Amino acid sequence: MTKSRERVSKAKPGAAVTRPRAPKLPPTISRAALMVDGTDMLVRRITHQHFVLSSLLETVRSGFASLVGLSTFQYVLMQAVGRLTDKQQWTVRSTAREMHVTDAYASVEIADLVEQGYLAKVVNPDDRRVSFLELTDKGVSSLSAIAPIQQIVNDALYGHLDSNSALTYSNELSVLISRAESAISVLNDVAADQREAALRQPTKRRRRTTAR
């Protein structure tokens, strides 16, 4: 059998390169304020940039987590417990809400960190059914050990910001997170309506064929 070979055409020097025509697709937004020159290109560019940025940041977080020998989620959780104590008292439930995971998933990951000696559970004296999370000496020393590497990497990542622009950026991210939560709620509602509509549609019965 002979394998078919794909022909590669080389453009001649100075010849115009013809780009493939982009398909005519309906816009993904309806707000006129976000339409530029009658298209949704700006929003599509922002959405694509978010996708690329989230992938790059995940690579950075994964790299930091590997230095401690933890999963990315466990690394982020330990940083939150150790450094964001002014935000809230960290419990299994508050962790799940903040990280947008289920209580069961958060409970399993936290239990693993407790078993490895990175986290400890401290019983709330006002409600003994609830335990607060805190770093152990091992957790503190582990995060402290990688801090010099974090400084170099984060200086490269956030080097374009100062305190004012960083605060503005943080506030905008908070708004965007809230808007994303609303968008997910809308998406779930629309998907549920479509499922209900599909279930209401009568299904065509197939005719039975008899063997002859």
TrEMBL record:
User: What are the residue boundaries of the HTH marR-type domain, all occurrences included?
Assistant: 22-182
Q: According to the lineage, what is the superkingdom?
A: Bacteria
Which organism encodes this protein? Bradyrhizobium barranii
- Give the residue ranges for region: Disordered: 1-23
Supply the name of the protein: MarR family winged helix-turn-helix transcriptional regulator
Q: Do you know which InterPro entries this protein is assigned to?
A: HTH_MarR-typ, WH-like_DNA-bd_sf, WH_DNA-bd_sf
